[in-house]
Amino acid sequence: MSLAVPVTLKTTQSGENERLEYAVSAMQGYRLNMEDAHAIVLNLDAATGTSFFGVYDGHGGPAVSKYCARHLHAELRRHESFRDNLQTAIERTFLRMDEMMRDRRAGRELSGYGGNDNWKAYRKAINMSLFLPFCQKPAYQGPVMDGCTACVVLIRDNRIIVGNAGDSRCVLSRNNQAIDLSTDFKPNLPDERQRIEAAGHVVTFSERGNVHRIDDGIAVSRSLGDLMYKDNNDLGPVQQAITAFPEVRTEEITQDDQFLIIACDGIWDCLTSQQAVDFIRIYSFADVGLASICEALLAHCVAQPRGRDNMTVILVRFKTPGACQVRASNVPPPPIRQDAAASQAAGSQAAAASQAAGSQAAAGH
Length: 365
Fold this sequence. Notes:
Elements: E1 7-16, E2 20-29, E3 36-45, E4 50-59, H1 63-78, H2 86-102, H3 107-113, H4 117-131, E5 147-156, E6 159-165, E7 169-174, E8 177-180, H5 190-198, E9 203-206, E10 211-214, E11 224-225, E12 247-252, E13 257-263, H6 265-268, H7 273-285, H8 290-302, E14 311-318, H9 340-364
Antiparallel strand pairs: 1-2, 2-14, 3-4, 4-5, 5-6, 5-11, 6-12, 7-8, 7-13, 9-10, 13-14
Helix pairs in contact: 1-2, 1-3, 3-4, 7-8
């Protein structure tokens, strides 16, 4: 289900240090709930001068995305290989998230984020056990039917290190040309399909949206959480139908590098990587701040026929020479920031429309 009218209130923030300037903006859009989360730590580690940016696109509820946004970068910082082998640290930390969420100790936090019936029931059982201390602790399964994709970027020295599990994407603009620094992990990719089928599942095709899915369900082949697809006891975590194991890429920063885009698939459903780079480049000519550019990008995407998803975008600009040299004409005006009260009213109208539609459907049955 989706809302008849999108919730277009945007949560936006920005910041900078001596090397980088960033902005991030997120919007619920047509979805019934906001399931995206993000984390930005400009100075994750002072000794190595490491900056961290992460986008977490949730599905089945916001619990896993919010949990990872809170914990992944902290666990990464604590990993023994963080200072001398970032690839190993990122790979182990992604897998570590699943280990942590399987543990009962994560249950209270995850259930507090809610978002689906499983967490509501678990939360209720926890509260009941507080009043009945002699009762057995409620069974805990972890995030069985909910999860999130994760695309994280670390900038250290003269390197961009990208870790990605899922279909969020990191794009580098170099001399105005888009360079993908991550793979959109979909079930129909040959290596992904082979792993999925070896784990005892099947890849199916849905004409609704023209997407490939696993067992007619989830449409990504790598994610954090989604433990129902990671239940083959004969296989390790990397061989499961859905794995949290990330692809890690490293790119050297050059004088021609202008900015990075890190965004969930709600953006990439509407724009190609090059189109997103061109959009940002045109706004940059108008001397518009990064926060306004991010908001303009969300407004543009939600107006597209395929713009039905939650949307989150992080824009990172390098404070180095090599910025765009050719000035464009016909620059579109910067977006007008939306008044919160007006957006809330739109959200209330959307919710009312959704409830009305539900009532009509019920009456039809």
